[in-house]
Amino acid sequence: MLSLKLIRENTQLVRDALAKRGETAPIDEIIRLDEERRRILSEVEGLRARRNAVSQQLAKMKDKPPETIAEMRRVGDEIKALDVKADEIQSNLDYLLLLVPNIPDESVPVGKDESDNVVVRTWGEPPKLDFTPLPHWDIGERLGMIDFARGVKISGARFYVLKGMLARMERAIIDWMPDLHTSEHGYSEVAPPYLVKRESMIGTGQLPKFEEDAYRVSDEDLFLVPTAEVPVTNLYRDEILEPGTLPIYHVSYTACFRKEAGAAGRDTRGMIRVHQFDKVEMVKFVEPGTSYEELERLVDNAEEVLRRLRIPYQVKLMCTADLGFTAAKKYDPEAWFPGQDKYIEISSCSNFTDFQARRANIRYRPAAGEKPEFVHTLNGSGLAVGRTLAAILENYQQADGSVVIPEVLRPYVGGKEIIEPA
What we know:
Blueprint: H1 4-9, H2 11-21, H3 27-60, H4 66-97, E1 118-123, H5 136-143, E2 146-147, H6 148-155, E3 161-162, H7 164-184, E4 188-189, E5 195-197, H8 198-204, E6 216-217, E7 222-224, H9 229-233, E8 239-241, E9 248-257, E10 276-286, H10 291-309, E11 313-317, E12 329-337, E13 342-345, E14 349-351, H11 355-360, E15 362-364, E16 373-374, E17 376-384, H12 385-395, E18 403-404, E19 418-419
Parallel strand pairs: 4-9, 8-15
Antiparallel strand pairs: 1-11, 2-3, 5-7, 6-7, 9-10, 10-17, 11-12, 12-13, 12-14, 14-17, 15-16, 18-19
Helix pairs in contact: 3-4, 5-12, 7-12
């Protein structure tokens, strides 16, 4: 959330940021309501000062004029009515502020759509295969280990069932990724709930703007997590972190649930864009002066997963139009998928600056006795598990239909080296 002060004092900066994003927000209404609220508060302050002065005079009088007492009652009633009006305006302001996206960092390229994203680096060479590579959905079905038909039968479109060694491989990936991040990258592991309150979804920016993408338990107003970012970031909602606490690095595995309401027709086949998926998420809470350095390290932590798996990838710096609502700067590592002859997003790593911290009221005290400040939050997939499994299937497929298991995962699957058709 942007501060009201920023919008009030740097209105043109905010308008320019919205234009770069290609988005709209109710800035005019925010300014109007802010001016009205401040006018009312000034009027209330004047009425209270007048009432206090008259009350002091009355206290000195033995015989208190009835007309003065009646007038002060009217003043009291007017103050109450104005207070109610000010509270209503504040409530409207609070809601409208939640609809304003973050301001892109100056280093973010200005663009009109995803075609203006910039590839900043690549790693590895796409494998040169002496056979025509298959997409992962064909590989999984040939192995007899991905069952899309039964997934649809059980739950509907964009669901699937993993069987045998692919079910075990998914579990191996889930185990290995947090092990890497905790043992080598300095993260502490968190196992959060999969259901969160509305306040938590507001805190990280999923609500109110993107409620149509969320799965909601209507009778309790709870939401299935779209990513571990939501519960992990909200660990510190409405808290002041004491001096020396930062930086905090957490890593968390959760199942994730998204309706993908805005993705009709995209990646309809396979495991790429589904309603339920697994993800290992890295979340950081840092001091403002270090957050962009922390973003670069976060991206490298995600890349290291791909390097260990020896999967070729590229990293894109997202342009202003493809940042997402909450990010000030975002990188997307994309894995190479030979069966589809393209790179596909496998992680998103973002610096939100103080945008989420303001919404969730997460602050820290720089030193003992100093005034609390908002932290900067960051998060990145480390990685999306289903997409990682799909990338392994496509990059490690063999001409005979088998799939080689990456070396780093073999200790997690009992030393097995090859997945063969069931």
